[in-house]
Queue: 4 jobs
Job 1
Amino acid sequence: MSAARPLTTLRTFAVIAALPLLLTACGYGADSSDDDGKQPEVAADAKKLSADTVKIGYFPNLTHATALVGVQEGLLQKELGGTKIQPSTFNAGPSEIEALNSGSIDIGWIGPSPSINGYTKAQGKNLRIISGSASGGVKLVVNPKKIKSLKDVKGKKIATPQLGNTQDVALLNWISEQGWKVDAESGKGDVSVVRTDNKITPDAYKSGSIDGAWVPEPTASKLVADGAKVLLDESDLWPDKKFVITNIIVSQSFLKDHPDVVEAVLRGSVKTNEWINANPDQAKASANKALEKLSGKALPANVLDPAWKSVTFLDDPLAATLDTQAEHSVASGLLEETDLKGIYDLRPLNKVLKAEGKDSVDDAGLGVK
């Protein structure tokens, strides 16, 4: 991006009315919790790295399956040796960023918008994006009785997870590209944008209070199971049908003090993504088992199967798409301009990829110098 775009300078309404909700990843609920799933035992003779533990955070979502599966299958712990994983789960981007800032976690899986907001709010001093994790998994699903084509979206009520979050910005940008007008803050205009928490969106759909939703998985597939139809897969709007939905971020202080631990987590992530892609059915079952441990309820097959198919797991952070998403935020009217240079440090990842015989990835000019 050519000019500075401070994502922290939101319009007054957005700051006052919605700051606790802004720029979240695609979770359910609002708080964090320790992951109480049984963790792999650390061998007594396993060699510790430079830290006794590494505190990682992620969401109980399929778009965070790299973390879910990596922990569930012990693939992350294997690379860490005697350094123990201490996992926590989060259901909102701001709470995970707050945890990173406070030192409650060291490394986290998180969506693009909270990554950008967290970086710019701290003036580039708290975090770095060190890897990608997932692409896709976002759809516009609608009531087929009310909306039969894209042009029918005009005049309807479409839900997004929260004001200013990644899907909200994507919908606002798409509406603008149709030539329609919507006030970004209020959601009023040619389309009524209704900010609705993912966990209650299915009930809102059943009640008829919304006509559709631009949402991540598995919410999209939950709506389809309730009779909605997929009108648009967001991946179709992006080059090569890829866009970042989940990054891996790290505290800059932890990266500086414990580079060996960061590299170990990245090795675990790379090997987990490789295992997921080589064993999709096993990986899907593993992710669902992890979700069941965290939520007490597994996803049914008619939700899990289509949701899983729509997410791509990869190490590339797709940096150019993060830059474009920031531009969309500016164009939507929610955010002013920001400079993202320095948000990435892909050197540890590229070191790991090289050792694994894989191609390096690019930071789109937004990396540390």
Note: Residues 132 and 315 are 5 Å apart (CA to CA).
Job 2
Amino acid sequence: MDITRRDGLGMLAGLAAAGATANAQARSILRPTGADGSLQSLAAAKGMRLGSCFAWSEPGADRGSFANPAYARLLKRDCGLLVPENEMKWQALRPSATTFDFARFDAMMAWADANALPVRGHNLLWHQPKWMPKWEESHDFGATPTRAAEQLLVRHITTVCQRYGTRIRSYDVVNEAVTPADGTLYTTALSRALGSPEATLDLAFHTARTAAPHAQLVYNDYMSWEPGNAQHRAGVLKLLEGFKARGVPVDALGVQSHLVTQGTDTRAAIAALEGEWRRFIDAVTAMGYAIVITELDVRDNNLPADVAARDQGVADFTRGYLDLMFAYPALKDVLLWGMTDRYSWIEGFEPRKDKARRRPCPYDAAFVAKPMHAAIAAAFTAAAPRG
């Protein structure tokens, strides 16, 4: 998930000119709700939305980008919502403490607008040292560090939110602030200057509410249901409880859902996982938080290399997870972390030991729908309608 510097300033102008008429027409067209077979159509019929991450690239590049016609077709067919994979993060937008670079994300927004596809904001603060820009961790906050840090954070969030206005109606305001190993909060140079991680996260949400009063404000994390995540889940619950106690304007929990299969007996695996997971989601929703599945994909661990068997195992695990999650009316939006195996981050992050290429997405590397696609469709079809 490396982020490179952008060189697409000219592309934005071209997109804006070419898409002006299409944009006006597209805004008058509702996203599909009929029986056209698309995932978004099935989701919309239940008052839900299905979406995916997408990226920037030069036109025609072999990437999971709106500028790749093959990938763009998948987005337009199956999605009713998009989210930038990397281009809205601090590393992408903030080349320095005093400058912004919106060229790539502006191009992505222009394309989404032209195709009447809403966009979620991801993210306004990834509160871990390794995911903040290098300049931030070595930044000199001067003689009044608290004031300087507050100005830096407020300026970032306000600038981003005001630039896109009501075009973005849901933000991952804070991403992954809880340490998985022990449930404590990460510290950064920013939080040290502000006095504590809690003060930093609270300020981020209060600033986002002021700058984007129309938007759903989400805390997003990867406190998954697989074994070994109990401390992470406990830390997230503690953080959510603290937000409530302090009156911090957080509307929803983003559940990343980078799932990891547990073996060939899917039914037994889900039975072993669902009790603790339900208790966690029950506790979140009991506090009044909505739920968003923000980054769904599936690592095919402990499944055979045989493609047919592996794809079916991934599909069955996906279906079991979604059936459980769709039982919660507080969940309305599901975002896939990529439409096709061809561009999934997982291959580079954790390749299989047997060298078989990962198959974590609903379409394979040749853009052909897999059993996972059918499993997602079936889960939406079986879901109870939302209000």
Note: Residues 180 and 232 are 4 Å apart (CA to CA).
Job 3
Amino acid sequence: MTTAQSLDVKPSPLALLLLGRGADPASERGVDCPGDLPAASDPDLVERARAAKERLGERVFVLGHHYQRDEVIQFADVTGDSFKLARDAAARPQAEYIVFCGVHFMAESADILTSDAQQVVLPDLAAGCSMADMASAEQVADAWDALTEAGVADATVPVTYMNSSADIKAFTGRHGGTVCTSSNAQRALEWAFAQRADGEGKVLFLPDQHLGRNTAVRDLGMSLDDCVVWNPHKPNGGLTPDALRRARMILWRGHCSVHGRFSLESVNEVRERVPGVTVMVHPECRHEVVAAADRVGSTEHIIAALEAAPAGSRWAIGTELNLVRRLANRFAPEGKEVVFLDRTVCFCSTMNRIDLPHLVWALESLADGKVVGRIQVDAETEHFAKLALERMLALP
């Protein structure tokens, strides 16, 4: 059986993620990998975390994203993807403090959905998201101006992925759009296109071009020619007004620095290496990877598929390595073999900034009456971002 210790993975020797520096043709942007994670923290920190959490009692609610390292996940009251965790936080009004072990945009969503009496804490404020950072409010406003000049803004509905900043969610809310997750992106796009009864509607999809393209082509039956990519670093996005008028999907040039590393060669190699393997990938992967996979789905879908899989089945998973290792360990006793899709791997370096020392610091500070790492979205941004989130919640 394959366990997390025998995933047959060779970590990359490259350095940490450096946004906007260097070039990596395989992932479309400078993405370097730190190699393996550091060893588990001092065992004394485990006891300190337990003691601080016990002191706080029901005043604290700890959320752990699936991509967090095990030493952090062990203290999570609930685990899940970003939106599930934000909703879980909102469902615990008695918790004075929400400690979000994830990244910045996730904590923002939790702050938007929780009450004013609750305070959201991110144990390391430097835990950001490279994808979310690829679309700034100023850049998106410039793009909308270009759509207006091309005469197509009135026909365009913005749809932003959950993996975006509160500012981008607010922009979407102001302009009649909605938020989506990797689980409901198809329903969100169907809703957006239905806003124009004449069938001439367009979607500006932010900030992950791959999820937008994969959903449009794979799920809605569009062609790749229906999609254009807006590059915020080029004048007018690198597109002519005619190209904007012809397109149905205007995709922001953003991507996940982890999922963007998977390639068609990864899929072909694992099929040769693991006979009878089922390849399952996240829809943030590039289109050719998704097209070559056997199954495609969100992290929750991946977990559910493995839970339902028969003993003896073999799976290659294309998503963040912390989750894949955890699933390999979990399902090995059931006779299910789980391997990572690629031999050369990259952890989500920003997600992994939330380590046990930061969590202990946050919990002990809260137990001592000091709020650290608070995430607070301003009232106007919260209003419009919540409007976009509520439109998503109202999707059929």
Note: Residues 1-6, 9-35 have pLDDT under 50 and may be disordered.
Job 4
Amino acid sequence: MSRASSAPSAPARRMRPLYAAGFTTAFGAHGIAASLGSDAEGAVTSLLVLGGLLALYDGAEVVLKPVFGTLADRIGARPVLLGGLVAFAAASALYAVVDSPGWLWAARLGQGAAASAFSPSVSALVARLNPAARHGRAFGGYGFHKSLGYTLGPLFGGVLVRAGGLRLLFAVLAVLGAAVAVWAAVAVPVVAPLPKARQTLLDLARRLAEPAFLAPASALAAATAALSAGVGFLPVSGRAAGLGAVATGAAVSLLAACSTVVQPRAGRALDSGRLTTRAGLPAALLLAAAGLGCAMLPGLAGVLSAAALIGSGTGLITPLGFAALASSTRPERLGQTMGAGELGRELGDAGGPLLVAVVASRTTLAHGYAVLGSLLALGAALGLAGGWSRKSNT
């Protein structure tokens, strides 16, 4: 492929602030989540408080992402994106200025609600600002920047908290959110909402139950479940094998790095026709399932191979899944579809570690990996039998 043919049809200046918005939500989510437990200022007084603050952000996303996705279809994705970024900056500034343990709850809730607004809006804009033939590359780039945020958030969040406490981290997030909002306001064009037929709740339920939505959304949820389980429990496996903090930390970093590297390459392969969703989604689920199988092996080799396979499988699924959702949805319903797809990922994010933990509490951690891995392998088999494809009549 020549350099000319690989140039994006939408100007890069339009896409970069969208990618920056994805980085912002990921950096903020994991940066704060990883830093709350090390808070030394008295805001996090117990494990119960820590759990509540973590759940508050995710709970807001679960409830509000479909709502804001539907709003983006009604009034346009750009104003919802800008409103979400401004609200994220304001919520972050709230705790940075007030510095009260009680206001930390309000700030965390505000950040979750704001991220719920601009996440599906960004996905809808990425789809509408790029032709269908470039959706794989576009969503691969978006996923790359989100994964970069997930990777760098805990690292730089910890540095900021050590230097100036949680207030400094929230202040940096306020500046980041405001800067991206200004950038998006300048560079992202107005994308007018499209006329659409009236839709009842029954119509929505039927649409979301169709294989064209359910298959990629389920794959995205399953991949996120494997990723979250890997991030949460691979360090436990490493410690049980006598590995130190450096080795277990390297495993989690490897997982994130593999996901980050694979996503843009998978997107380009999809656009060029070298990869299809019919083959790619089941293969990615099998990769992640194999990673969970490797997690059952003792020692460093098992942990590192598990991290590499889970990260690669997740990185492969993300651009393929979102490109499939975009191609199977009428443009006037993109926000709603992306919001529902993001909801599935949030459920997988919570459900994967929970499933592993429940099974492990009754048997062993290896059995927990085995159960989740078996579900992913079953999903791959069903996907092959159902014939996932990029095109749909939805």
Note: DSSP finds 13 helices and no strands in the chain.
